[in-house]
Amino acid sequence: MSSKGSSAAKREAAMDITEGKSGLWGWLAGLIVLALIAVPLSAAFAFATHPHSQQLFANRLDEVGPGAYQAFWWLVTIFLVILPILVGYAIAKLSARSLAIVGGIVALFVIAILVLGQLFVF
């Protein structure tokens, strides 16, 4: 009877298609995120590297200096570059609790960027 139970357990373990493939799932998730953020990433990089793009915001940024404007867009660019790497690593290596913590940190960072954006633009 115990040999039947162990053979059933071996068969179930053999049917687990995700075993040893967490790195591939991480790569896939990172690649999908990179594809989704490609346009915002290129726009943020363009805003960060071209100081005259500040005029695109209809003179709402007159009181903000060009250094602060570029620093904001460099911060957004760096976050967007790191995001696919972070998502891929989180999917591949972290537990459910750690994923929740990383998700919370990312959510706080996005909220901070939105608040800073509102301060700069409006």
Question: What's the gist of this structure?
Answer:
The chain has helices at residues 2-14, 22-36, 38-49, 66-93, 96-121. By secondary structure, it is mainly alpha-helical.
Walkthrough of the structure:
- The mean pLDDT is 76.
- Helix 3 packs antiparallel against helix 4 (66-93).
- The chain is elongated and about 75 Å long.
- The longest helix is centred in the middle third of the chain and has 28 residues, at 66-93.
- With 122 residues, it is an all-alpha fold.
- The protein is built from five helices and no strands.
- 77% of the residues lie in helices and 0% in strands.
SSE topology sketch:
Blueprint: H1 2-14, H2 22-36, H3 38-49, H4 66-93, H5 96-121
Helix pairs in contact: 2-4, 3-4, 4-5
Strand content: under 5%
Please count the helical segments: 5
State the shape: elongated
Can you write the helix and strand succession as a string?
HHHHH
Give the low-pLDDT segments: none
Question: What's the gyration radius in Å?
Answer: 22 Å
Number of strands: 0
What is the overall pLDDT average? Answer: 76
Helix content: over 70%
